[in-house]
Specification:
455 residues, alpha/beta, six-stranded mixed β-sheet
Length: 455
Amino acid sequence: MDHDIIAAISTGLTSGGIGIVRVSGPGAVELCAPLAELKGRSLKEAEPNHLYYGKIRRDEQLLDEGLITVLKGPKSYTAEDTVEFQCHGGPFVLKSVLEAVLARGARLAEPGEFTKRAFLNGRLDLSEAEAVIDLIRAENELARHTALAQLSGDFSRRIGGIRAEILEKTAYLEAALDDPEHYSLEGFGEALAPRLKALKGDIDSLLKDSDKGRVLTEGIRTAILGRPNVGKSSLLNAFLGFERAIVTGIPGTTRDTIEESCRVGELVLRLLDTAGIRESGDAVEALGIERARRSAEEADLILLMLDGSAAPGPEDEALRALCRHKPALLLLNKADLGLAADPATLGKAWDLPCFAISAKTGAGLEAVTAHIRERFCLEEIRQQPLLVTNLRHKALLEQAVQSLSLALESLELGAPEDLLTIDLMDAYRSLGLILGEEADEDLINEIFSKFCMGK
């Protein structure tokens, strides 16, 4: 860990009423003292955790006036000495104050470096640090609630409790292997098996709704598929409330995938308007069609659109294969022109929920969004006290479950105890990676590189 002094603008570079320049590291107060002109005292004499009105100067030049606070480590966000300048929120003002701090010898902070220092200094574990960025990026109430629960340490305590019991059982096993005269393994396996099943069940309960939780906090990746000119771009525009995609009567207008987000109640839909899928000799259109197929494979939800004013043809039915292993809805568009097929009958034949809509007038869209909310169990998920939404955490929890399953198989087969300890320690290490106790430098750097500047 670097112990130099870092500084950054922590409130972004958009205009606002207030902007904050944060400075952290050993000697931060001494470095910033010549810049802060307080009434009747030096910044070095300022009481921690108090706001002081003062002027911010670079040599004789007045940069701004505002509020200045000193936070002494370890009782600060980074667990280091920290100074924060609360300035007027104009980008030029903030840059001027930051440049003055850098000229004094501070270094521009890397993305997420303040939170990284909080982790390295033991103030946060890695899962809590990741919750910080989840909270910043939260786009709905569920995402905010989930991030706050993780930041408060509830998830860490749950994982820590499981790890502690695994370590206790492993330690006893290894002690018995090293000193069989004082530690007996008689009946140990019979007592261990139900405890391992309970621990595995505890992890399984965390994994139960992880996929649903992820799409509800990050947004539902929703691919709009269909043949050319069925109204896919019109549907995207209807969801967004403005004309994002070009709509014409010419088939093949959309050549590439267009991605936009829209809020539907508490849901966020990551909408992907794709090129119309058909056989095409146009190289550019063919590339767009291939991207459309790839979007279908990666989507959490598929909206399969048909021209409801015409009977479904062979090309429409060929698109059903793209929905075989994905949640999907069948949308009969252009209902304002009259429907050529009954939605209930066609939906039953295609084994898909079917809705008559008009992307032009917006008719039927409310029923579609209501079904999506029900499909992704929004009410049920909201009641969960802890929800795993991080893909890294999910993968590590799955590894821990696999290791515990192997340990249980070893017990059933009567395998040697030293093999049992290997599986138990694998589970222990997987859970430790969630908290950062087993993390290497590359993993830590990768995680914090995703943070914004100044956090």
